[in-house]
Specification:
CATH topology of chain A: Sufe protein. Chain: A
Shape of chain B: globular
Distance between the termini of chain B: 44 Å
CATH class of the largest domain in chain B: Alpha Beta
Number of domains of chain A: 1
Number of strands of chain B: 12
CATH architecture of the largest domain in chain B: 3-Layer(aba) Sandwich
CATH superfamily of the largest domain in chain B: Type I PLP-dependent aspartate aminotransferase-like (Major domain)
Oligomer: heterodimer
Order of helices and strands of chain B: EHHHEHEHEHEHEHEEHEEHEHHEHHH
Largest sheet of chain A: 3 strands, antiparallel
Mean pLDDT of chain B: 96
Largest interface: A-B, 33 and 35 residues
Structural class of chain A: alpha+beta
Mean pLDDT of chain A: 92
Distance between the termini of chain A: 57 Å
Strand content of chain A: 15-25%
Low-confidence stretches of chain B: none
Number of helices of chain A: 6
Shape of chain A: elongated
Structural class of chain B: alpha/beta
CATH architecture of chain A: Alpha-Beta Complex
Number of helices of chain B: 15
Strand order of the largest sheet of chain B: 2-8-7-6-5-3-4
CATH class of chain A: Alpha Beta
Radius of gyration of chain B: 23 Å
Order of helices and strands of chain A: HEEEHHHHHEE
Low-confidence stretches of chain A: none
CATH topology of the largest domain in chain B: Aspartate Aminotransferase, domain 2
Largest sheet of chain B: 7 strands, mixed
Chain lengths: ~140, ~425
């Protein structure tokens, strides 16, 4: 075969084959693990947070190529963001950054968003004192 | 250069050069329509008859008149199931099928259920063998057709067709056998089984796509489900795909002489592949019967724990290895293969499913390359998988080789998906 065909676009394939931020964070400040009821995939995101900002992020994913690529891209996108910014993170950002996903695989990006939010929730639970300083849409969080 | 190993012969096979040669004149030179009454039509009619004879010989049918050509195996199953259901409506509106039939049978049955038919799906053992007692009990005086496939498309289980045939004959109900996964690889004998109908398609054994076969015993009643001209004895309207039919006939003729060598060649590769994978990859399971008399020699259906099937498939493809998967992530409906469900496979194992199907062109070197590549792929994906970690920390347990510590994968999956489902 002279040409190579791929199931996903080159960006998705790249994030699947060479995932960014794959692994766990020692002494993570927040960890979120979520599963997709629809297909059975499981995604885990770990965050290191300093002064209200995501310093580092890692993922581990049990799932298909687009689930792995979605979690890789999500961790890339959220590094450096404040907690408040990360709380408004949407799966559409992942889809856009990946240059699109097949319709049946959009739920993989939703899973990445949910894993991130679960990790943030975990952080707030562990650091209730931080909640009052995080404002989303003008409102302070309650832990 | 990457080695290319095609391990998806269940989906397609390359057309034999000899088959391609005999097809060629029917595209350009002998282009006539078999319904025409002039020289051009009569010539291709003759070719059609030869192909029917070649197909009839492959399955030990009495006469070429019992062979009908369709567009593929799916159309043949639709014609068998719906054709028999509609033709025998006055006798009753009950169907019996095995729970692991191909979607072309399952979905035809579902269609009929919406039109007022009822259907009993007969269960299988964990290795996929039909529960014959249940089959016997499922047949009622209203049953108009029993559908049992010869070999399962996913897990390679060979059904005991003679016994199934005896049960159907004793009950006086016609038996339809889908031989899509077996024809051209295993002996198919319509008389020995007492089958009323048998279907298959030559593209599974080195013939072209675009042609399907339905054998119908003269005593079995079916009505047409495609309406138009009077082709195929009035059972299937539509212009015959002559080049594909000619090629299908040739592929059948060649298969007759090669059944034994095909079986031996693939059986030795099947053993080599399974033994190699089993020794190199931890927590891997073979679904379906062990290699031997109950399993077709071309098929391996594997579950590798703690990783998902689509990722395995994609990484195999990047290594030049073509495989299939019954994982929900591969399916457009996000559901695991219903066959894996029917044999009671744990959802976690169904997620990590890969199907490898061997063919004539595979070599021992190919197999060794696959074993090497696959064990690397498993290591790579496990390094990415939270489930592998959680297994190693004792949070979840293995289904394949339980250690007694931790909860089940499914329990864990339900907990984490219950938290944020969508």
């Amino acid at each position: 075969m002279s040409e190579t065909y791929t199931l996903y676009n080159p960006t998705v394939m790249d994030h699947f084959i060479n995932p960014r931020n794959m692994g766990d964070l020692k002494d993570a400040d927040g960890v979120g693990e979520v599963g997709a009821a629809a297909c059975g995939d499981i995604m885990k995101i770990s965050l290191r947070i300093k002064d209200g900002r995501i310093e580092d992020a890692r993922f581990k994913t049990f799932g298909c190529g687009s689930a792995i690529a979605s979690s890789s891209m999500a961790t890339e996108l959220i590094k450096g963001r404040t907690i408040a910014e990360a709380l408004t993170f949407s799966n559409e950002e992942v889809v856009d950054a990946l240059g699109g996903l097949p319709p049946v695989k959009i739920h993989c990006s939703v899973l990445a968003e949910e894993a991130l939010k679960a990790a943030l929730e975990d952080y707030v639970k562990r650091h209730p004192e931080s909640a009052s300083s995080i404002t989303v849409a003008g409102q302070a969080l309650t832990a | 250069m990457t080695r290319h190993v095609f391990l998806d012969h269940q989906s397609a096979t390359p057309v034999y050069p000899e088959v391609f040669e005999v097809m060629k004149p029917y595209f350009t030179e002998h282009f006539g329509n078999a319904s025409s009454l002039h020289q051009h039509g009569l010539r291709v009619r003759d070719a059609l008859r030869t192909a029917r004879q070649q197909i009839a010989a492959l399955i030990h049918a009495d006469s070429e008149e019992e062979i009908f050509f369709t567009s593929d195996g799916t159309e043949s199953s639709n014609l068998a199931i719906k054709g028999a259901a509609y033709a025998n409506e006055r006798k009753g509106k009950h169907l019996v099928v095995s729970a692991t039939e191909h979607p072309s049978v399952m979905n035809s049955v579902e269609f009929l259920e919406k039109q007022g038919w009822t259907c009993t799906r007969v269960g299988v053992t964990p290795s996929g063998l039909l529960r014959l007692k249940e089959l016997e009990a499922a047949i009622t005086p209203q049953t108009v057709i029993v559908a049992v496939h010869h070999v399962n498309h996913d897990i390679g289980t060979i059904q005991p067709m003679k016994e199934v045939g005896r049960i159907c004959a004793a009950a006086g109900v016609p038996l339809y056998v889908d031989c899509e996964a077996s024809a051209g690889w295993l002996p198919v004998d319509v008389k020995d089984w007492g089958a009323a109908m048998v279907s298959f398609s030559p593209h599974r054994f080195y013939g072209p796509k675009g042609v399907g076969v339905l054998y119908r015993n003269k005593r079995a009643r079916i009505v047409s489900i495609l309406h138009g001209g009077v082709q195929e004895g009035g059972r299937r309207a539509g212009t015959e795909n002559i080049p594909a039919i000619v090629g299908g006939g040739k592929a059948a003729e060649m298969a007759i002489g090669r059944l034994t060598t095909r079986g031996e060649h693939t059986a030795s590769l099947q053993r080599r592949l399974w033994e190699g994978l089993h020794s190199r990859v931890s927590f891997i399971k073979l679904n379906g019967p062990a290699p031997g008399p109950d399993r077709i020699s071309t098929n391996l259906n594997l579950s590798t724990e703690f990783i998902e099937g689509e990722g395995q498939l994609l990484l195999c493809d990047l290594s030049g290895i073509a495989v299939a998967s019954g994982s929900s992530c591969v399916s457009k409906s996000l559901k695991i293969s219903h066959v894996l469900g029917a044999i009671g496979l744990d959802h976690a194992l169904a997620q990590g499913n890969i199907i490898m199907t061997l063919g004539e062109g595979n070599t021992a070197e190919d197999i060794d390359y696959v074993i090497d590549s696959f064990s690397g792929i498993v290591t790579k994906l496990r390094a990415m998988s939270p489930m592998w970690d959680e297994f190693e920390c004792g949070v979840i347990d293995s289904v394949i080789a339980p250690t007694g510590r931790g909860k089940s994968f499914s329990q864990h999956a339900a907990e984490v998906s219950g938290k944020a489902s969508h």
